[in-house]
Design a protein that fits this description.
The chain has about 270 residues and is an alpha/beta fold. Helix content is about 25%, strand content about 20%. An eight-stranded mixed sheet has the order 1-6-5-4-7-8-10-9, sandwiched between helices. The chain starts with a strand and ends with a strand.
Amino acid sequence: MRVVRGWSRLRGGSRISDTAPRPYRGARPDRSFKDPSFRRSLALFRAFRHEQDDPETCYELLACDAADQVEAYDGPVDGRTVVDVGGGGGYFTAEFRRRGAQAYLFEPDVQELGEKPPDGAVIADGYLLPLSDGVADVTFSSNVLEHVADPQTFLSELARVTRPGGLIYVSFTNWLSPWGGHEWAPWHYFGAERARARYRRRTGKPAKHTLGENLFAVHIGATLRQVRARDDVTVVSARSRYWPFLAETVVKAPGIREVATWNLLLILRRCPP
C-alpha cells in the first residue's frame, strides 16, 4: 500500500487522511437533472462523447449526478464518511467533499490517480481495504465491478467497511451492454480479440483493456442472483444507471436487460452482523 498524503486514525485503528478536503477542481455543473429523464440521459451521453478530449467536464458531471443519486436514496452526505473505492482521478471524492462529506479515495492503480489526486488518496486493493469494519456511512464504487476478477469478494469487502444500515452504491457496465467492450465497443459483440485488433488498426495503439485481465464479462442476471443471495446486504434498488425511463423495469426483463440496461446500478443496505 502506498500512502499519497498524511494520515490520522479513525475508529479502532483505521487510518483516514487528516488533510483538509481538496477544493472542487473545476466549474461544477450548474444544475441537476431529474432522474430518470431524457434530458439527463442526453446530457450524460454528450459528456461521454468527450471523455477522451475533455475528461474533466465529463467526470465532473458524472460525479455530480452520482452524488445526487446517493443523496436521493440516503439523504445528504454532509458530515458523513464516504469511502470511494476505485474512483480513479478523484472526481467523485471531490464532489462528495464539496457537499460536506468526509470522503476518501482508495485506488489500486497509481496511473489512474492522474497528476493531481485528492489529498489523502491511497493506493489500495479493493479486495483488502486498509480500513476497520463499519467505518463508512456510504461506500461508493462507480464502474469498477467489471474490472475485478472476483466480484463477490470485492462486494464482501465493500460490505465489511460499511456500518450496519449504511449505504453501498455499486455500478458497472455489463458485458452485453453496447458499451461492454469499453474502448473497443460495440465490436465486442463479434469477439473480444477481433474487437481489440480492430481498435489497434483504427487508432494505431493497443487497447487499454484485455478481456480476462483487466476487463471481465459480468452479466446482470447472474449478478442479481448472487447479490440477492447474500446475507450481509439487502437490495434497495437494482436499476439502469443512465436509462431515461422505466429504469427499474428494464432490469426485470431477463435477456433484454443484458443489452438494454447499459449500466447496472445497485443500491444496497448493509445488514447488521
